[in-house]
Amino acid sequence: MQIYQYPSPEGEKKISDTIERGLGYTQEDYNNVEAYINDVKKRGDDALLEYTRKFDSSAITLENLKVSEEEFNQAMETLDDSFLKALDRAVAQLTQFHRQQKEKSWIDTPRQGVMVGQLVRPVDAAGIYAPGAQGGKTPLVSSVLMGGIPAKVAGVETVILMTPPMADGTVNPHMLAAAKKVGIDRVFKAGSAWAIAAMAHGTPMVPRVDVIVGPGNIYVTLAKKIVSGTVGIDMIAGPSEILIIADNGANPDFLAADLLSQAEHDIMASAILITDSKDLAIATQQAVKMQLQALSRRDIATPSMKNFGAALVVPDIGTAINLANRLAPEHLELVIKEPFECIDRIKNAGAIFIGPYTPEPVGDYIAGPNHVLPTAGTARFSSALCVDNFTKKSSLINYSREAFLAEADDIITLAETEGLDAHANAIKIRRQG
Protein backbone atom coordinates (compact mmCIF):
# COMPACT_ATOMS: atom_id res chain seq x y z
CA MET A 1 0.00 0.00 0.00
CA GLN A 2 1.61 3.20 -1.19
CA ILE A 3 1.20 6.58 0.51
CA TYR A 4 0.37 9.66 -1.59
CA GLN A 5 0.21 13.29 -0.69
CA TYR A 6 -2.99 14.90 -1.97
CA PRO A 7 -3.42 17.07 -3.88
CA SER A 8 -0.59 15.98 -6.17
CA PRO A 9 -0.35 14.60 -9.73
CA GLU A 10 0.45 11.15 -8.31
CA GLY A 11 -2.47 11.25 -5.89
CA GLU A 12 -4.82 12.46 -8.59
CA LYS A 13 -3.73 9.63 -10.89
CA LYS A 14 -4.42 7.10 -8.15
CA ILE A 15 -7.92 8.47 -7.67
CA SER A 16 -8.59 8.47 -11.43
CA ASP A 17 -7.26 4.93 -11.89
CA THR A 18 -9.50 3.69 -9.08
CA ILE A 19 -12.58 5.33 -10.57
CA GLU A 20 -11.89 4.00 -14.06
CA ARG A 21 -10.85 0.41 -13.31
CA GLY A 22 -14.20 -0.94 -14.57
CA LEU A 23 -15.51 -4.50 -14.49
CA GLY A 24 -12.42 -6.06 -16.01
CA TYR A 25 -13.91 -8.32 -18.70
CA THR A 26 -12.91 -9.02 -22.29
CA GLN A 27 -14.96 -9.31 -25.46
CA GLU A 28 -14.26 -13.05 -25.35
CA ASP A 29 -15.83 -13.22 -21.88
CA TYR A 30 -18.92 -11.41 -23.16
CA ASN A 31 -19.21 -13.68 -26.21
CA ASN A 32 -18.86 -16.82 -24.08
CA VAL A 33 -21.56 -15.70 -21.65
CA GLU A 34 -23.90 -14.78 -24.48
CA ALA A 35 -23.38 -18.25 -25.99
CA TYR A 36 -24.20 -19.95 -22.68
CA ILE A 37 -27.38 -17.90 -22.31
CA ASN A 38 -28.55 -18.63 -25.83
CA ASP A 39 -27.86 -22.34 -25.39
CA VAL A 40 -29.86 -22.57 -22.16
CA LYS A 41 -32.63 -20.57 -23.78
CA LYS A 42 -32.68 -23.06 -26.66
CA ARG A 43 -32.04 -26.39 -24.92
CA GLY A 44 -33.31 -25.70 -21.40
CA ASP A 45 -32.51 -28.32 -18.78
CA ASP A 46 -30.23 -30.28 -21.13
CA ALA A 47 -27.87 -27.33 -21.44
CA LEU A 48 -28.12 -26.50 -17.74
CA LEU A 49 -27.21 -30.07 -16.80
CA GLU A 50 -24.39 -30.26 -19.35
CA TYR A 51 -22.60 -27.19 -18.01
CA THR A 52 -23.22 -28.07 -14.38
CA ARG A 53 -21.82 -31.55 -14.87
CA LYS A 54 -18.84 -30.21 -16.81
CA PHE A 55 -17.81 -27.43 -14.47
CA ASP A 56 -19.13 -28.35 -11.01
CA SER A 57 -20.24 -31.94 -10.43
CA SER A 58 -20.64 -34.99 -12.63
CA ALA A 59 -23.08 -36.35 -10.04
CA ILE A 60 -25.85 -33.93 -11.05
CA THR A 61 -28.84 -35.42 -12.85
CA LEU A 62 -32.26 -34.10 -13.72
CA GLU A 63 -33.60 -36.00 -10.72
CA ASN A 64 -31.29 -34.35 -8.16
CA LEU A 65 -30.93 -30.92 -9.77
CA LYS A 66 -33.47 -29.62 -7.26
CA VAL A 67 -32.59 -29.96 -3.58
CA SER A 68 -34.93 -32.48 -1.91
CA GLU A 69 -36.64 -32.13 1.46
CA GLU A 70 -34.47 -34.99 2.70
CA GLU A 71 -31.34 -33.00 1.81
CA PHE A 72 -32.67 -30.03 3.77
CA ASN A 73 -33.35 -32.21 6.80
CA GLN A 74 -29.92 -33.85 6.67
CA ALA A 75 -28.26 -30.45 6.39
CA MET A 76 -29.97 -29.13 9.52
CA GLU A 77 -28.81 -32.16 11.50
CA THR A 78 -25.14 -31.63 10.67
CA LEU A 79 -24.82 -28.01 11.83
CA ASP A 80 -23.55 -26.90 15.22
CA ASP A 81 -25.48 -24.71 17.62
CA SER A 82 -23.11 -21.75 17.33
CA PHE A 83 -23.77 -21.42 13.61
CA LEU A 84 -27.53 -21.78 14.03
CA LYS A 85 -27.49 -19.13 16.78
CA ALA A 86 -25.58 -16.70 14.56
CA LEU A 87 -27.88 -17.50 11.65
CA ASP A 88 -31.00 -16.86 13.72
CA ARG A 89 -29.66 -13.49 14.87
CA ALA A 90 -28.75 -12.44 11.34
CA VAL A 91 -32.14 -13.46 9.94
CA ALA A 92 -34.01 -11.64 12.72
CA GLN A 93 -32.03 -8.41 12.42
CA LEU A 94 -32.06 -8.33 8.63
CA THR A 95 -35.79 -9.02 8.58
CA GLN A 96 -36.48 -6.26 11.08
CA PHE A 97 -34.50 -3.73 9.02
CA HIS A 98 -36.06 -4.65 5.69
CA ARG A 99 -39.59 -4.48 7.08
CA GLN A 100 -39.01 -0.77 7.60
CA GLN A 101 -38.51 -0.39 3.84
CA LYS A 102 -41.83 -1.86 2.79
CA GLU A 103 -44.06 0.70 1.11
CA LYS A 104 -47.86 0.67 1.26
CA SER A 105 -50.34 1.32 -1.51
CA TRP A 106 -52.06 4.70 -1.19
CA ILE A 107 -54.97 6.71 -2.54
CA ASP A 108 -55.45 10.49 -2.56
CA THR A 109 -58.25 12.87 -3.62
CA PRO A 110 -56.28 16.01 -4.55
CA ARG A 111 -59.14 17.74 -6.42
CA GLN A 112 -62.92 17.53 -6.43
CA GLY A 113 -63.96 14.44 -8.39
CA VAL A 114 -60.39 13.17 -8.89
CA MET A 115 -58.83 10.13 -7.29
CA VAL A 116 -55.18 9.20 -7.84
CA GLY A 117 -53.04 6.66 -6.10
CA GLN A 118 -50.43 3.97 -6.30
CA LEU A 119 -50.63 0.20 -5.95
CA VAL A 120 -47.49 -1.44 -4.59
CA ARG A 121 -47.32 -5.10 -5.54
CA PRO A 122 -44.58 -7.74 -5.29
CA VAL A 123 -43.31 -9.49 -8.38
CA ASP A 124 -44.57 -13.05 -8.79
CA ALA A 125 -41.17 -14.78 -8.72
CA ALA A 126 -37.61 -13.88 -7.77
CA GLY A 127 -34.31 -15.67 -8.27
CA ILE A 128 -31.46 -15.42 -5.78
CA TYR A 129 -27.95 -16.29 -6.91
CA ALA A 130 -25.38 -17.34 -4.31
CA PRO A 131 -21.85 -18.22 -5.43
CA GLY A 132 -20.18 -21.43 -4.37
CA ALA A 133 -16.77 -20.19 -3.30
CA GLN A 134 -13.95 -22.74 -3.47
CA GLY A 135 -16.22 -25.41 -4.88
CA GLY A 136 -18.80 -24.83 -2.17
CA LYS A 137 -16.34 -25.40 0.68
CA THR A 138 -16.68 -21.80 1.88
CA PRO A 139 -20.44 -21.21 1.71
CA LEU A 140 -21.53 -17.62 1.11
CA VAL A 141 -24.44 -17.83 3.54
CA SER A 142 -24.82 -14.07 3.67
CA SER A 143 -25.69 -13.96 -0.05
CA VAL A 144 -28.71 -16.17 0.64
CA LEU A 145 -29.85 -13.89 3.46
CA MET A 146 -29.28 -10.60 1.66
CA GLY A 147 -31.20 -11.72 -1.41
CA GLY A 148 -33.89 -13.88 0.13
CA ILE A 149 -34.99 -11.75 3.08
CA PRO A 150 -36.03 -8.59 1.18
CA ALA A 151 -37.80 -10.77 -1.40
CA LYS A 152 -39.80 -12.50 1.31
CA VAL A 153 -40.51 -9.24 3.14
CA ALA A 154 -41.79 -7.81 -0.15
CA GLY A 155 -44.26 -10.69 -0.37
CA VAL A 156 -42.85 -12.48 -3.42
CA GLU A 157 -44.81 -15.71 -3.84
CA THR A 158 -42.04 -17.84 -5.38
CA VAL A 159 -38.39 -17.33 -4.38
CA ILE A 160 -35.83 -19.72 -5.79
CA LEU A 161 -32.12 -20.05 -5.09
CA MET A 162 -29.44 -21.05 -7.58
CA THR A 163 -26.07 -22.09 -6.21
CA PRO A 164 -23.34 -24.36 -7.65
CA PRO A 165 -23.12 -27.85 -6.16
CA MET A 166 -20.01 -29.25 -4.52
CA ALA A 167 -18.09 -31.97 -6.37
CA ASP A 168 -20.20 -34.73 -4.78
CA GLY A 169 -23.42 -33.20 -6.10
CA THR A 170 -24.63 -31.77 -2.79
CA VAL A 171 -25.05 -28.20 -1.60
CA ASN A 172 -23.13 -27.04 1.44
CA PRO A 173 -25.40 -27.60 4.47
CA HIS A 174 -24.81 -24.06 5.76
CA MET A 175 -26.34 -22.73 2.53
CA LEU A 176 -29.35 -25.02 2.86
CA ALA A 177 -29.89 -24.00 6.47
CA ALA A 178 -29.88 -20.34 5.43
CA ALA A 179 -32.35 -21.03 2.63
CA LYS A 180 -34.60 -22.90 5.06
CA LYS A 181 -34.55 -20.12 7.66
CA VAL A 182 -35.28 -17.43 5.07
CA GLY A 183 -38.13 -19.41 3.51
CA ILE A 184 -36.67 -19.99 0.05
CA ASP A 185 -39.18 -22.11 -1.87
CA ARG A 186 -36.85 -24.11 -4.12
CA VAL A 187 -33.08 -24.56 -4.39
CA PHE A 188 -31.37 -25.67 -7.60
CA LYS A 189 -27.81 -26.91 -7.99
CA ALA A 190 -26.38 -24.79 -10.78
CA GLY A 191 -24.12 -21.79 -11.06
CA SER A 192 -22.47 -19.25 -13.34
CA ALA A 193 -24.02 -17.80 -16.50
CA TRP A 194 -26.17 -20.87 -17.22
CA ALA A 195 -27.91 -20.53 -13.86
CA ILE A 196 -28.73 -16.90 -14.59
CA ALA A 197 -30.00 -17.90 -18.03
CA ALA A 198 -32.25 -20.61 -16.58
CA MET A 199 -33.85 -18.16 -14.16
CA ALA A 200 -34.25 -15.43 -16.78
CA HIS A 201 -35.82 -17.61 -19.48
CA GLY A 202 -37.13 -20.60 -17.53
CA THR A 203 -36.69 -24.30 -18.26
CA PRO A 204 -39.02 -27.26 -17.71
CA MET A 205 -37.41 -27.67 -14.29
CA VAL A 206 -36.55 -24.09 -13.31
CA PRO A 207 -39.34 -21.50 -13.15
CA ARG A 208 -38.89 -18.24 -14.99
CA VAL A 209 -38.50 -15.37 -12.55
CA ASP A 210 -39.17 -11.65 -12.75
CA VAL A 211 -36.14 -10.40 -10.81
CA ILE A 212 -32.63 -11.83 -10.34
CA VAL A 213 -30.33 -10.64 -7.56
CA GLY A 214 -27.05 -11.72 -6.03
CA PRO A 215 -23.28 -11.47 -6.49
CA GLY A 216 -20.98 -13.61 -8.58
CA ASN A 217 -17.91 -13.73 -10.78
CA ILE A 218 -17.54 -11.87 -14.05
CA TYR A 219 -19.60 -14.52 -15.93
CA VAL A 220 -22.49 -14.06 -13.50
CA THR A 221 -22.20 -10.28 -13.73
CA LEU A 222 -22.15 -10.31 -17.53
CA ALA A 223 -25.08 -12.74 -17.64
CA LYS A 224 -27.13 -10.40 -15.47
CA LYS A 225 -26.13 -7.50 -17.70
CA ILE A 226 -27.28 -9.38 -20.83
CA VAL A 227 -30.63 -10.57 -19.42
CA SER A 228 -31.41 -7.20 -17.86
CA GLY A 229 -34.57 -5.96 -19.52
CA THR A 230 -35.87 -9.51 -19.91
CA VAL A 231 -35.88 -9.58 -16.12
CA GLY A 232 -35.13 -7.02 -13.45
CA ILE A 233 -31.74 -7.21 -11.76
CA ASP A 234 -30.28 -5.64 -8.66
CA MET A 235 -27.19 -4.04 -10.25
CA ILE A 236 -24.10 -4.59 -12.38
CA ALA A 237 -21.55 -5.01 -9.60
CA GLY A 238 -17.83 -4.47 -9.99
CA PRO A 239 -15.01 -5.43 -7.62
CA SER A 240 -15.51 -4.75 -3.92
CA GLU A 241 -14.23 -1.50 -2.43
CA ILE A 242 -13.73 0.27 0.87
CA LEU A 243 -12.81 3.86 1.63
CA ILE A 244 -11.87 4.88 5.17
CA ILE A 245 -11.72 8.48 6.35
CA ALA A 246 -9.67 8.64 9.55
CA ASP A 247 -7.98 11.22 11.73
CA ASN A 248 -5.02 10.98 14.09
CA GLY A 249 -7.17 9.44 16.84
CA ALA A 250 -7.82 6.26 14.84
CA ASN A 251 -6.23 2.89 15.62
CA PRO A 252 -3.97 1.89 12.70
CA ASP A 253 -4.41 -1.80 13.45
CA PHE A 254 -8.18 -1.40 13.13
CA LEU A 255 -7.81 0.47 9.85
CA ALA A 256 -5.43 -2.11 8.39
CA ALA A 257 -7.78 -4.94 9.30
CA ASP A 258 -10.70 -3.16 7.66
CA LEU A 259 -8.76 -2.41 4.47
CA LEU A 260 -7.72 -6.05 4.21
CA SER A 261 -11.28 -7.25 4.83
CA GLN A 262 -12.07 -5.99 1.33
CA ALA A 263 -8.71 -6.68 -0.31
CA GLU A 264 -9.14 -10.41 0.37
CA HIS A 265 -12.26 -10.49 -1.82
CA ASP A 266 -10.65 -9.95 -5.20
CA ILE A 267 -7.32 -8.97 -6.74
CA MET A 268 -9.14 -5.95 -8.20
CA ALA A 269 -10.74 -4.89 -4.91
CA SER A 270 -10.04 -1.32 -3.89
CA ALA A 271 -8.97 -0.41 -0.33
CA ILE A 272 -8.17 3.25 0.30
CA LEU A 273 -7.43 5.24 3.44
CA ILE A 274 -7.80 9.02 3.40
CA THR A 275 -6.41 10.83 6.42
CA ASP A 276 -5.13 14.22 7.52
CA SER A 277 -2.34 12.52 9.52
CA LYS A 278 0.82 11.31 7.76
CA ASP A 279 1.86 9.48 10.93
CA LEU A 280 -1.40 7.50 10.84
CA ALA A 281 -0.90 6.68 7.15
CA ILE A 282 2.59 5.31 7.86
CA ALA A 283 1.43 3.33 10.88
CA THR A 284 -1.47 1.83 8.89
CA GLN A 285 0.88 0.94 6.03
CA GLN A 286 3.08 -0.99 8.47
CA ALA A 287 0.05 -2.69 10.06
CA VAL A 288 -1.15 -3.84 6.64
CA LYS A 289 2.24 -5.47 5.97
CA MET A 290 2.17 -7.27 9.32
CA GLN A 291 -1.44 -8.48 9.06
CA LEU A 292 -1.04 -9.67 5.48
CA GLN A 293 1.36 -12.37 6.59
CA ALA A 294 -1.30 -14.11 8.68
CA LEU A 295 -4.10 -14.06 6.09
CA SER A 296 -5.13 -17.33 4.45
CA ARG A 297 -6.11 -15.31 1.36
CA ARG A 298 -2.91 -13.23 1.20
CA ASP A 299 -2.33 -14.37 -2.38
CA ILE A 300 -5.43 -12.35 -3.28
CA ALA A 301 -5.09 -9.51 -0.77
CA THR A 302 -1.44 -8.77 -1.60
CA PRO A 303 -1.90 -7.85 -5.29
CA SER A 304 -5.14 -6.08 -4.40
CA MET A 305 -3.38 -3.84 -1.90
CA LYS A 306 -0.43 -3.30 -4.24
CA ASN A 307 -2.49 -2.31 -7.27
CA PHE A 308 -5.65 -0.79 -5.80
CA GLY A 309 -4.74 0.00 -2.21
CA ALA A 310 -3.52 3.41 -1.12
CA ALA A 311 -3.29 5.93 1.69
CA LEU A 312 -3.91 9.54 0.74
CA VAL A 313 -2.70 12.25 3.10
CA VAL A 314 -4.92 15.32 2.72
CA PRO A 315 -4.81 18.81 4.27
CA ASP A 316 -8.06 18.37 6.20
CA ILE A 317 -11.10 16.12 6.66
CA GLY A 318 -13.17 18.35 4.38
CA THR A 319 -10.89 17.41 1.48
CA ALA A 320 -11.31 13.74 2.44
CA ILE A 321 -15.09 14.06 2.29
CA ASN A 322 -14.92 15.72 -1.13
CA LEU A 323 -12.79 12.83 -2.42
CA ALA A 324 -15.19 10.30 -0.92
CA ASN A 325 -18.10 11.93 -2.75
CA ARG A 326 -16.11 11.77 -5.96
CA LEU A 327 -15.18 8.10 -5.52
CA ALA A 328 -18.73 7.17 -4.37
CA PRO A 329 -17.47 4.05 -2.58
CA GLU A 330 -19.37 0.86 -1.92
CA HIS A 331 -18.33 0.96 1.76
CA LEU A 332 -17.37 4.18 3.54
CA GLU A 333 -16.01 4.13 7.08
CA LEU A 334 -15.85 7.31 9.16
CA VAL A 335 -13.24 6.85 11.89
CA ILE A 336 -12.97 10.44 13.04
CA LYS A 337 -13.63 12.34 16.26
CA GLU A 338 -17.07 13.73 15.37
CA PRO A 339 -18.41 11.48 12.58
CA PHE A 340 -22.07 12.44 12.96
CA GLU A 341 -21.22 16.06 12.19
CA CYS A 342 -20.00 14.97 8.75
CA ILE A 343 -22.82 12.68 7.68
CA ASP A 344 -24.90 15.40 6.03
CA ARG A 345 -21.89 16.21 3.82
CA ILE A 346 -21.67 12.64 2.49
CA LYS A 347 -23.51 12.57 -0.83
CA ASN A 348 -22.35 9.33 -2.46
CA ALA A 349 -21.79 6.02 -0.66
CA GLY A 350 -23.37 2.58 -0.71
CA ALA A 351 -23.22 2.22 3.08
CA ILE A 352 -21.67 4.39 5.78
CA PHE A 353 -20.03 2.78 8.82
CA ILE A 354 -19.69 5.18 11.72
CA GLY A 355 -17.09 4.98 14.45
CA PRO A 356 -14.19 2.67 15.39
CA TYR A 357 -16.39 -0.24 16.44
CA THR A 358 -18.45 -0.39 13.27
CA PRO A 359 -16.12 -2.19 10.84
CA GLU A 360 -17.47 -3.10 7.41
CA PRO A 361 -17.96 -6.82 8.24
CA VAL A 362 -20.77 -6.02 10.71
CA GLY A 363 -22.72 -4.82 7.68
CA ASP A 364 -21.72 -7.86 5.67
CA TYR A 365 -23.42 -10.22 8.06
CA ILE A 366 -25.61 -9.05 10.86
CA ALA A 367 -26.30 -5.33 11.37
CA GLY A 368 -29.52 -5.31 9.32
CA PRO A 369 -28.93 -3.22 6.16
CA ASN A 370 -28.29 -5.09 2.94
CA HIS A 371 -24.71 -5.72 1.92
CA VAL A 372 -25.45 -5.84 -1.81
CA LEU A 373 -24.24 -2.33 -2.60
CA PRO A 374 -23.44 -0.20 -5.64
CA THR A 375 -19.78 -0.31 -6.74
CA ALA A 376 -17.51 1.39 -9.26
CA GLY A 377 -18.89 4.85 -8.49
CA THR A 378 -22.51 3.90 -9.14
CA ALA A 379 -23.47 5.02 -5.62
CA ARG A 380 -23.76 8.41 -7.35
CA PHE A 381 -27.14 7.26 -8.67
CA SER A 382 -28.05 3.87 -7.21
CA SER A 383 -28.76 2.27 -3.85
CA ALA A 384 -28.38 -0.91 -1.85
CA LEU A 385 -30.50 -3.94 -2.67
CA CYS A 386 -33.79 -3.49 -0.85
CA VAL A 387 -37.45 -4.47 -0.74
CA ASP A 388 -38.14 -2.08 -3.64
CA ASN A 389 -36.14 -4.34 -5.97
CA PHE A 390 -38.89 -6.96 -5.57
CA THR A 391 -41.90 -4.72 -6.02
CA LYS A 392 -43.51 -2.71 -8.81
CA LYS A 393 -45.86 0.24 -8.60
CA SER A 394 -49.01 0.81 -10.63
CA SER A 395 -50.63 4.22 -10.79
CA LEU A 396 -54.37 4.62 -10.10
CA ILE A 397 -56.41 7.37 -11.78
CA ASN A 398 -60.16 8.05 -11.63
CA TYR A 399 -62.09 11.15 -12.81
CA SER A 400 -65.73 12.06 -12.42
CA ARG A 401 -67.44 13.68 -15.43
CA GLU A 402 -67.31 17.08 -13.74
CA ALA A 403 -63.60 16.81 -12.96
CA PHE A 404 -62.92 15.62 -16.52
CA LEU A 405 -64.72 18.61 -18.04
CA ALA A 406 -62.87 21.03 -15.76
CA GLU A 407 -59.50 19.90 -17.12
CA ALA A 408 -60.44 18.88 -20.69
CA ASP A 409 -59.32 22.09 -22.42
CA ASP A 410 -55.85 21.92 -20.90
CA ILE A 411 -55.44 18.29 -21.91
CA ILE A 412 -56.47 19.11 -25.49
CA THR A 413 -54.04 22.03 -25.60
CA LEU A 414 -51.12 19.89 -24.47
CA ALA A 415 -52.02 17.02 -26.84
CA GLU A 416 -52.35 19.32 -29.87
CA THR A 417 -49.06 21.03 -28.97
CA GLU A 418 -47.41 17.62 -29.30
CA GLY A 419 -49.22 16.97 -32.60
CA LEU A 420 -51.16 14.03 -31.18
CA ASP A 421 -54.62 14.59 -32.65
CA ALA A 422 -55.98 11.20 -31.57
CA HIS A 423 -55.08 11.99 -27.98
CA ALA A 424 -56.94 15.28 -28.24
CA ASN A 425 -59.91 13.57 -29.90
CA ALA A 426 -60.21 11.08 -27.00
CA ILE A 427 -60.92 14.12 -24.85
CA LYS A 428 -63.10 16.02 -27.34
CA ILE A 429 -65.39 13.08 -28.02
CA ARG A 430 -66.23 12.79 -24.31
CA ARG A 431 -66.71 16.51 -23.86
CA GLN A 432 -69.33 16.46 -26.59
CA GLY A 433 -71.17 13.47 -25.14
Descriptive notes:
With 433 residues, this protein is an alpha/beta fold. Helices cover 45% and strands 18% of the residues. The chain has 3 domains: 2-22 and 238-368, 3-Layer(aba) Sandwich (Rossmann fold); 27-105 and 123-233, 3-Layer(aba) Sandwich (Rossmann fold), CATH 3.40.50.1980; 400-432, no CATH class. Helix 2 packs across helix 3, helix 5 (81-99) runs parallel beside helix 7 and helix 10 crosses helix 12 (298-308). Strand 9, helix 9 (218-227) and strand 10 form a beta-alpha-beta unit. A 6-stranded parallel sheet has the order 1-13-12-11-14-15, sandwiched between helices. It has 16 helices and 16 strands. It has helices at 9-19, 27-43, 45-55, 69-78, 81-99, 141-154, 173-182, 192-201, 218-227, 252-263, 278-292, 298-308, 317-327, 360-365, 401-417, 421-432; strands at 2-5, 106-111, 114-122, 125-129, 132-133, 138-139, 158-163, 186-189, 211-213, 232-233, 241-246, 270-275, 309-313, 331-335, 351-354, 391-399. The mean pLDDT is 95.
